[in-house]
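User: Thanks for the earlier help. One more: Exocyst subunit Exo70 family protein. Can you show the sequence and predicted structure together?

Assistant: Of course, both are below.
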Amino acid sequence: MSEFGSTLPVSGVKSHVLEACRHVVNALRASDNNLDANLTKLLSDLDTHLSTLGNVDTKLVKDTGFSEIKERFKEAKKIILAWEQNQSLILDAGLCEADLFFKSLHDVQTVLTSFKALPSKSSKKEKDVYNQASVVLDIGMLRLEKELSDVLNQYKHHVQPRYLAVSSRGKDIVYDESFVSLDDEVVVEATSQEDDQQILGSNNGELVDLLVVPHIKAIAKAMLACGYDQPFREAFISVRRDALNEYMATLEVERFSCGDVLGMQWEDLNGEMRKWSKVLKIVTQVYLVREKHLCDKILGEFEPSFTVCFVEISKDTILSLLSFGEAVALRSCQPEMLERFLSMYEVSAEILLEVDNLFPHESGVAFHELSKKLADCTITTFLKFKNAIASDESIRAFPGGSIHHLTRYVMNYLKLLPEYKDALNTLLENLQVDDTIPEKTGQDILPSTFSPMARHLRSIVTTLESTLERKAQLYADESLKYIFLMNNYHYMVQKVKTSELKHFFGDEWIRKHIASYQHNVTDYERTTWSSVLSLLKDNNKDSVATVRERCRLFCLAFDDVYKNQTRWSVPDPELRDDLHISTSVKVVQSYRGFLGRHATRIGEKYIRYSCEDIESLLLDLFECLPSPRSLRSSRSKR
């Protein structure tokens, strides 16, 4: 398989080299009439040497003799034509047979290049041998072209990314005015690090069996040396491009036009954007790296064929991925697209080094431009997300004082962002933001607390708090306003404390907001129970009628609280239990003291509730009951 080496007669590459050298010599001579004598002699000697090289093949024909060359050609022709009808692989015939085939091709090429060096007035016999050699060489090259395609197809490895989930299934994030699409049950995807391990771990083999690479390389040498560059490239590119398309099909990648992307519904686009991020990563960091490695093994010493083949193999796939990203960047940047844009930007920025190594020219530049567009879209979407929170206006109070959809949406969305901390810190570094958290120093303060991302996340929550304060004013009942604020502040604190957000918000933020919702609890208890419990305060001068009236009024006031606040909601069970305990301690203790002092004066038939009744009924508060249970069932006999 080494016949087509540097010892080839003047043809193809070698003839071009000789012509180039002569051109350089002539150009130097014409460039300056005052050349140094030594340089003039050197150029003259070089010109003579080049002329000698050009005459080698003429000498070869004369020294060898026409009859001997004709005999060598007949043997080579016989071997080549024998493989014309043989459909089996030359590779399978064994190394000796393959070497014999390549040697025969070399002999035919030698005949052709030798006769090209003869004077134009050749004999009819010589011309006939020349014409036959041309036909035989064509036949041999067609056989090699078929061999190339067959070997590449039969010995390619079918790469299956078994551990990479690229399905678009899953709960999608959808933005609407009610902010109801993202709650505590949202399915969070695996982290990027886990995906990387799956991607890299799923493609640890070669794209073509290494045992056949020397044979393919021998085909490349033979076809390129004989001037059949184009047929080789077309066959090689066709098979390897089909293999890449087959691989893309295993990733369930569809090709969309710009119009398709712009007209796509968000639910479908969300899945395709998620898939694009993963596919782009595996294609550029794994598959194409291996494809270029294969091209380098076979064509590394043959430029420009090496570059041309790799670029043509990957061009359609790369253009498809680029066009999808470009089309997405043209869409309106809506809040629900933030995470998807972050993911696409992060991947596009991460692969730039690989892309520069793979495509040092146009395609690499296109990826850099796409990454910049995705960065701009991400920043715009981030700001729109914050503005959507600030501009959310309600005309009705949120039912039951529960956790607002806006609060759930924002906090669960923020929980997704630490995965993109590097990208966000880069994008937000030069974006000014108001952040009221003072910078502190100390061993317990993490640097991430004061990163650009941390400042912006806290700013978003500050915007959320302002919006919640406005919504709280919609409640006519002062007590319910405090329950609403307590629920929402408590929810924000729990989301931060139990997630990666704690590294960005910091302990001081957590302490401050715990104090906020605890203050809401105090305000609730004061607003709700102060006037009710004031009815149980008395002195020894009160008459029996006055005491009985106080007891009656207390029961009526308690009934009102019960009927209202059983419809209210405190979703967190621990917070609800704490409220029950705190309220029970105050109310039951005051009521027990009142009955202890006046039960005999009031009389049993005028006492509607026992202390146990009050304690039991208080447990119904904040349960968001559709209707309160009958209070009569809990009353003592009059």
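User: Great, one quick takeaway?

Assistant: The chain has four domains: 12-148, 192-372, 399-526, 535-634.
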